[in-house]
């Protein structure tokens, strides 16, 4: 018989393919779930990134932004800015808003806010939307407040507010601040006044912590990216920060990219897990077609003919599953945006993004090829006699061509995952961990099958039947263990992460954290500050440190401005960071290399660097570090490396200088106050009365903000991981389906010998129960280890899970998977012995 042409093979495949995909529904479902998840995550990430790019001018407030802290640009620099286009200046700082008069309800008399001074040209792009009127340039005595500030202080339009030495009248309530996203993370609600009004407060003093931003609406002759790069090179040593409209919110971009990458890896892991279900589903389908395949071979069909017919069938269903997943993944982002509300930085509209859709489709095709090839290869290569004996005899192994094709597909899958990842090493670690867990569970499955075969036969028939089902011909023990193990491991991992995060934010952090952080204390008034704080809370523990801001501009022989890309993990090279000086080793630090300078040291500049930062930059004791502070570059020798214990919730700095280096620079000091929370209100009032310019941060409010962010992240991870759980369930269903035909013969024989349905179901329950107990122990170990790694190594938190919740989740997951297994066994109970025996 000559080889079938593709048209003839498709005609046979189409006639044999059931309209409802009977037998191949699992293939469709698994590919649909995996591809839809990847496409939705990729499309949502691209939509947010594109929206940030499209709204760059509005988010930034200009085409170019030049920022600096604790100072303003010189008149000459401002003139140079104006030569590029229209200029707008803003000054932003944290400041305490004090209510004058009575507020509504039990509102506090003062809260921390973000006070922003703007000039007459503000805003260059967009509009400042107000509740009661149209924005016009403000007088020195006017102020606009955000709705959050209005609600918390219980005040409205016409109320009076005090900032420092100045009194303001609330002219209106801010509905929308056009450049809000470009301002970054804030610790309090916003208030906007004029630059002259801000200066009237007296809050801007030498050493005060404030940031100045100059936004430029460029003349059409200039290109924003070119101007930014030119200024960065020209002013690399002055500690300025530069943004353009194409990178208006780099922090938001980085967060979205990394979160999208992480969720995409979870989706890819779910798709790989679903691939096992794909393989089981196709194996089950081909097992049902065994007699037909054998008959075609007896009639002269070649191995290539068989391969063509069933590859066309499987390929058609796979393509439909991938296509359906792409459609759902493309239209799902608008629904996610609507449900997320204000959680996302922007709310993008509906738009198709070909690249993530194409990448998701390619993932789906590679997974489909990789996991459907083994059962198709067995059907192609096994002789007809072996196929007829397939119910009682299974042949394993592949020919060299099949192994080569599967190897190429696997390598392409890994290459695609690493090639599209922003952090290939992180992606490789995640995929490696998933692969290791799969191999471990597969090894456990093989070991269980061999051990069950060697165990002595129990006297109780149902226990004997349960053990026999674990190693009998056609048993899907390995696949069942992979499915059950993955699902239970994910349940434990998610429970461990969530309960540990909750314990850290609600229990561990508050115990370590001070009650208040006080900023902008005049350096000359430290003793007065101590006296006032002790008077309000005699038992209070105070930690006072000098505070400056600086930018690392060079390390060793490297200039940061010359780097095409920052080293991985070098977050401290982005913009300005907190800098301090100390005669003694700071609290919360451990010296790991070098020596600390003497308390009376008066020599050349020395600096102590965080050990992790030193490893990231590849430098150590004796190397040079250049830092720009207040526009002046200081080159210091690294005298020591410290391990910074960031979880102490005190003041922790990457850079600590010798005192002689910075003592003469204008600066303020900051303090933490650890005390009974009952003293918070009295302490705040006393400090504001003595120091109108200080900012008092209630650490509990910050903890609540961080907790809200972590909760949002855990929910996103939970949603993505739920797809992996569904994939594990699909693997379980596929394993049950693959073993259904061989189990049906057992059911018929046992029924013929007098077994009842309840007894058959009891045997199945005992089998799945034994596997569940075994895998509960494995899943508890694997899931706890994975959750520990995320909490301790990724978040650097304390490992403090709620074991009751974890064990309860594990038990619930075990009962769920056990129920699914029993539900899959129910169709076997309805098989009629007479009909089944006639088909043998």
Automatic annotation (TrEMBL):
Predominantly, its location class is membrane
Give the subcellular location: Cell membrane
Spans traversing the lipid bilayer: 262-288, 309-332, 352-373, 403-422, 428-452, 473-497, 716-739, 768-791, 803-829
Signal peptide segment = none
All copies of the ABC3 transporter permease C-terminal domain together span 265-383, 719-829
- Metal-binding: is it a keyword of this entry? no
UniProt keywords, alphabetically: Cell membrane, Membrane, Transmembrane, Transmembrane helix
Q: How does it sit in the membrane?
A: Multi-pass membrane protein
Return the PANTHER family for the record: INNER MEMBRANE PROTEIN (PTHR30287:SF1), MEMBRANE COMPONENT OF PREDICTED ABC SUPERFAMILY METABOLITE UPTAKE TRANSPORTER (PTHR30287)
Q: What is this protein called?
A: FtsX-like permease family protein
């Amino acid at each position: 018989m000559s080889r079938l042409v593709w048209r003839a093979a498709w005609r046979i495949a189409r006639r044999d393919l059931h309209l409802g995909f009977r037998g191949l529904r699992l293939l469709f479902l698994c590919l649909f779930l995996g591809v839809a998840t990847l496409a939705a995550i990729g499309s949502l990430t691209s939509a947010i990134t594109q929206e940030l790019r499209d709204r760059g001018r509005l988010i930034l407030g200009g085409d170019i932004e030049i920022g600096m802290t604790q100072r303003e640009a010189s008149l000459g620099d401002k003139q140079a800015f104006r030569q590029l286009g229209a200029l707008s200046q803003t000054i932003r700082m944290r400041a305490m808003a004090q209510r004058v008069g009575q507020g509504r309800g039990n509102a506090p008399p003062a809260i921390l806010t973000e006070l922003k001074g703007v000039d007459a040209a503000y805003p260059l792009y967009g509009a400042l939307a107000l509740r009661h009127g149209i924005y016009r340039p403000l007088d020195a005595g006017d102020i606009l407040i955000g709705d959050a500030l209005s609600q918390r202080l219980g005040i409205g339009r016409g109320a009076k507010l005090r900032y420092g030495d100045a009194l303001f009248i609330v002219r209106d309530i801010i509905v929308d601040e056009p450049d809000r996203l470009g301002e970054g993370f804030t610790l309090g609600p916003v208030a906007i006044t004029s630059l002259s009004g801000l200066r009237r407060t007296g809050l801007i003093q030498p050493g005060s912590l404030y940031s100045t931003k100059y936004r430029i609406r460029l003349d059409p002759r200039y290109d924003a990216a070119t101007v930014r790069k030119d200024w960065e090179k020209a002013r690399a040593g002055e500690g300025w920060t530069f943004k353009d409209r194409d990178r208006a919110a780099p922090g938001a971009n980085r967060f979205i990219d990394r979160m999208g990458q992480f969720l995409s890896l979870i989706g890819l892991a779910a798709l790989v897990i679903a691939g096992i279900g794909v393989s089981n589903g196709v194996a089950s389908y081909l097992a049902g077609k065994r007699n037909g395949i054998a008959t075609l071979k007896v009639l002269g069909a070649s191995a290539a003919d068989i391969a063509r017919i069933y590859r066309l069938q499987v390929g058609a269903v796979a393509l439909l599953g991938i296509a359906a997943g792409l459609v759902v993944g493309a239209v799902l982002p608008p629904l996610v945006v609507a449900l997320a509300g204000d959680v996302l930085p922007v709310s993008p509209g509906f738009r198709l993004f070909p690249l993530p859709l194409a990448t998701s489709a390619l993932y789906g095709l590679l997974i489909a090829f990789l996991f459907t090839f083994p059962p198709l290869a067995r059907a192609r290569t096994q002789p007809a006699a072996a196929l007829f004996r397939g119910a009682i005899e299974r042949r394993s192994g592949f020919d060299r061509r099949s192994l080569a094709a599967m190897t190429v597909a696997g390598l392409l899958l890994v290459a695609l995952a690493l090639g599209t990842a922003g952090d290939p090493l992180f992606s490789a670690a995640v995929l490696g961990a998933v692969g290791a867990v799969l191999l471990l569970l597969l090894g456990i499955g093989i070991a269980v099958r061999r051990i069950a075969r060697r165990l002595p036969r129990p006297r109780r028939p149902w226990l004997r039947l349960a053990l026999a089902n674990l190693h009998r011909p056609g048993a899907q023990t390995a696949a069942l263990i992979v499915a059950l193990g993955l699902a239970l491991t994910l349940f434990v991992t998610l429970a461990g992460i969530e309960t540990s995060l909750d314990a850290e934010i609600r229990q561990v952090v508050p115990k370590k954290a001070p009650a208040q952080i006080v900023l902008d204390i005049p350096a000359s008034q430290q003793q007065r500050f101590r006296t006032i704080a002790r008077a309000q809370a005699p038992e209070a523990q105070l930690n006072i440190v000098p505070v400056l801001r600086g930018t690392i501009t060079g390390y060793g022989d490297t200039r940061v401005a010359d780097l095409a890309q920052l080293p991985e993990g070098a977050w401290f090279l982005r913009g300005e960071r907190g800098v301090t000086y100390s005669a003694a080793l700071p609290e919360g630090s451990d010296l790991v290399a070098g020596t600390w300078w003497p308390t009376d040291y008066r020599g050349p500049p020395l600096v102590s660097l965080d050990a992790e930062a030193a490893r990231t930059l590849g430098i150590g004791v004796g190397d040079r570090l250049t830092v720009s502070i207040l526009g002046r570059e200081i080159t210091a020798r690294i005298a020591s490396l410290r391990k910074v214990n960031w979880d102490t919730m005190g003041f922790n700095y990457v850079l600590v200088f010798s005192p002689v280096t910075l003592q003469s620079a204008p600066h303020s000091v900051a303090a933490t106050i650890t005390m009974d929370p009952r003293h918070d209100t009295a302490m705040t009032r006393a400090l504001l009365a003595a120091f109108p310019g200080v900012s008092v941060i209630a650490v509990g409010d910050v903890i609540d903000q961080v907790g809200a962010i972590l909760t949002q992240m855990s929910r996103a991870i939970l949603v993505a991981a739920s797809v992996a759980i569904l994939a594990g369930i699909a693997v379980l269903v596929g394993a049950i389906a693959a073993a259904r035909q061989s189990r049906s013969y057992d059911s018929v024989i046992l029924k013929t010998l007098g077994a009842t349905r309840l007894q058959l179901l009891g045997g199945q329950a005992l089998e799945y129960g034994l596997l569940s107990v075994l895998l509960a122990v494995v899943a508890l170990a694997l899931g706890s280890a994975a959750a520990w790694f995320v909490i301790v190594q990724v978040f650097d938190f304390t490992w403090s899970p709620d074991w009751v919740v974890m064990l309860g989740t594990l038990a619930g997951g075990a009962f769920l998977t056990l129920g699914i297994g029993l539900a899959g066994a129910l169709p076997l109970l309805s098989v009629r012995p007479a009909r089944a025996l006639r088909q043998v």
